[in-house]
Please model this.
Amino acid sequence: MNAKPITVIATFQARPGKEAELKNALIGLVTPTRKEAGCLNYDLHQLPENPARFLFHENWTSKAHLDAHLQSAHIKALLPRVGDLALGLPEIQIWEKIA
Model:
């Protein structure tokens, strides 16, 4: 298992009129994800100037732990709903800490 910690930034843009529904769906991911092996933090943010924009800031102990998270039941349950709730798929960036 790759032991290099990683940071994930994932952003969502809610469809017009679906802001509250997307927000609730994303909030539903927080508690089960924080219990997953390798999760250092899993924090959900909303942009005050644009409440349709959401951002997850995540830190994982390794890429393998992130990969396991992406296969979790709660993530798989959300995937079929993303098209109805958000404009496109989330933008996901994976960062490595260097200092």
